[in-house]
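Sequence, C-alpha cells passed on for absentees:
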Amino acid sequence: MVRLGVVALLVLAIAAPFGLYPIFLMKALCFALFASAFNLLLGYGGLLSFGHAAFFGGAAYVTAHVVKVMGWPPELGLIAGTAFAAVLGLCFGWLAIRRQGIYFAMVTLALAQMLYFVALEAKFTHGEDGIQAVPRGKFLGLFDLSDTFTMYYFVLAIVVLAFWLIYRTVHSPFGQVLKAIRENEPRAISLGYRVDHYKLLAFTLSAGLAGLAGSTKALVFQLASLTDVDWRMSGQVVLMTLVGGVGTIFGPLVGAFILVTMENYLAQFGSWVTVIQGLIFVVCVLTFRKGVVGEIGELIRRAKGERQRGGGGGH
C-alpha cells in the first residue's frame, strides 16, 4: 500500500503542472523539502530549532550571488548554497548541542538572528532590496530552466531525491539511533553511543537539506531576500511540521502544501492571513494532536487492530 501510495503521488506530481499553477507548485515543493529537513531534526532527533531560516535563507543568498554575479551554472549554485548551509549547520550545531530543551532552541534563534543582521548589512546581499533578477540558466548546459515546465520538473527531481535521502536516513541504523536518543538519551549514552556526535551529524544534515530548499527557491523566484532569513520563516516551518505531523515522512509535505495553499488563496485578507493561520493552528493542535498525517496513520492502525481482533474472535 505504501509503495502504491508513493507511485500515485509521483504520477500526480508529474501531471500536476497541467492543471495547477506551476509556480505555486514549485513554492510548495520547496517548502515541503524545507519542512522535511526540519522534521528530520525535530521528529527523529527530538531537537527543536528556532533558527532554521538561517540555513534556508543563507543558502538562498549564496546561490543567488554565485549564479548572478559570478556566472556559475545553476547546478553549481545549488551545490554552493547547500554546502554553505551544511558548514553553517556544523558550526551552529557545535555550539547549540551543548544545551537542551528551550535553551537549545534559544541558542539556535540567537545564532540565526546574527545571520539576519549580516544579511541586512552586508554589501553583496543588497540589504532590504535583496538579490533580484537571478538568472536560472541552463542545467548541465542543456536544459533551459527559464521555461516554467522545465524548471518545475527540475525542482520535482531535486525534491524527490532529497525525500529519498531523508527516507533512507530515517530507516538506517543512524536513524534508529536518533530515535533512541529522542526517546531516552541517558539510556542511549549508557549503551555506549556518542550522543553529541549523532546530534551534530543530524543537525548538519538537516541544515544542508534546508539549504538545498532555500537555494532551489532562490532559482524558482529568481530572488533572495531578508524574508528568507527572518525569524518568521523559522516559525513557519515549525507550523508546517506540526500541522502535517511531527515524526512522519509525509507529514511535512502535507503541512507545507496546506500552509502554502492558505497563503495563496487567503492573500485577499491581507494581514488577517496570519490570524486565520493562527486559529487553524490552534484547532489542529487541539483536535489533531499528531498532525494530519499522524492522525490518519493512527486511524489506519486502529482499523487494522480491530480487523485482526475480529478475525481472531471468529476462529
About this structure: The chain has a mean pLDDT of 86. The longest strand covers residues 131-132.
